[in-house]
Each structure stands twice: as structure tokens, then as C-alpha cells.
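[Meeting: bench + compute handoff]

Bench side (C.D.) handed over the final construct sequence. Compute side (W.E.) agreed to return the predicted structure before the next meeting so the bench team could plan truncations. Sequence as handed over:
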Amino acid sequence: MFKFLYPKEYLSSVFDITVDKLRTLGIDTIIFDIDNTLVPYWIKVPDERLIKYFNELREGGIKLGVLSNSREERSKTFCTPVNIPYVFRAKKPGTKGFFEIMDKMGSLAESSMIVGDQIFTDVWCGNKAGAYSVLVKQVSPKDEFITAPKRPFEKIIVKMYLKSEGKK
């Protein structure tokens, strides 16, 4: 019933996504959400661990992008120091922003992965666009006011997903 909301994978962290894994899947582009996917929403710039991770992905031939529902200032402040193209106010789960970032990067949805901490925005957007969707556990239990009300419903979907995968 809710399979259109199921991710292709559910991982603990973005750091579980390696260059080898991406190559095995035939993926050459990874699109990240920022808030609570890469960093808590109050952290403005990538830390050293994220910078190292981004560099490893790039060295492995993976293109990086960011698709965020946040304002321009948030995306620009986070992405500019690490030279990552971005689309802000993406209006996920709509796909217009997703295809905008694909055009900016010269990438195709079918060889791209979208990674985020929310089912009703990141995963749904990726699924509708034809990308490989990955749900990761949120990096902080603190949510912004707009996200918090959705979490109980997402937990139900995750439970259903895990059961369908024989994992719980």
C-alpha cells in the first residue's frame, strides 16, 4: 500500500555509502539533503569528517549535489566551502528541483542516488524521479518544527518497510 514511500535502502548513516557500493549499483551521482541527513539543522558548514568523505567520493569519480527544501542562505553557506552544486527551496517531494540539480550536474536520475532522513520529502522525491532512494537515520533527535509532526508517521512506514524486507 505504501511501497511508493519505501526507500531502496535504509542505512544508519551517509558514511555507509561507499564508492565501491555506488559503483556496484551503477551510480555516478549522489544527491544529499542537508539538515539531519549530513548535519543537525543548526550546524552551518560541513565538519572535517564530511569534507574527507566528500573528497573520497569525488576521488572515486562520484558527482555530488545537494537538494534542500531550505532557504538559499542555508544551502549556499553549507555547499559553497566544499564546492557542491545545490538547489534550494526544492519543494520535495516534488521533482522539479531534483531535475534542476540533475541538469546542473549533467546527470541522469537512473544513475543517481538521493539520500535523506525523511520519507515524505527525500525518499518520495527520489522514487518519483526514478533515482535510487536511501533513507538514513537522522543525525540528531532534534527536529525543526515543520519536520517533527511527520516523524511518527515515518516510523510506521519504516516499520512496514523493514517487515517487507524481512528485517523486523
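W.E. noted at the follow-up: The mean pLDDT is 92. C.D. will use this when planning the next construct.
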